[in-house]
Amino acid sequence: MNCLRKIPMRMIVNGVQRQQQCMPSSTGAMSALTVLTEDERVMKETVAKLAQEQIAPLVKKMDEEHKFDPSVVKAVFENGLMGIEVDPDLGGSGCNFLTTILAVEELSKVDPAVGAFVDIHNTLVVSLMMKVGSEEQKNKYLPKLSQEYVSK
Asked: In this structure, are residues 35 and 22 in contact, taking their beta carbons and an 8 Å threshold?
């Protein structure tokens, strides 16, 4: 008795086509997701350094106190990690979604709570405002969300 269900051919073909789109071509049209751009690589290294130098020494204290140290919150704002995908004209870093993921990953290696904090702020709050906010709302709130307001 065969317990495996048959996969429609179109799903297989679509999957292969998507994989091919992400692979580097001889023309250099599209690179693989495993190949970081220079900006992505620099951001990853910068966030890793920030996490090791400014967050790691405070992790035990924050765990014991059950709250973030104010210097950690200040550091993530000052380093542009709270508006990673927001246009620079609105106070953000102007990077792509992969850069957000790389930053969250590097932060989470040192303190998963700080990684989750930055992730939730960027991918739930800020991205929602970017997608469904009116231009007036974006102009009013994105600079503050990117530079000073912590989402709750």
From this structure: no
Just give the CATH number of 37-147: 1.10.540.10
pLDDT, one tens digit per residue, over 11-70 is 444 554 555 445 454 555 566 667 899 999 999 999 999 999 999 999 999 999 999 999
Task: State the Cα torsion 68-70-72-78 to the nearest 10°.
Answer: 140
Query: Which residue in this structure is represented by tokens 């580097």?
Result: 24
Q: Report pTM.
A: 0.77
Domain borders along the chain are 37-147
Q: How many CB atoms lie within 10 A of CB 151?
A: 14
Q: Quick one: how far is CA 2 from the chain centroid?
A: 42
Rounded to an integer, what distance in angstroms lies between the CA atom of residue 22 and that of residue 35? 10
For residue 14, give the 3-state DSSP assignment.
helix
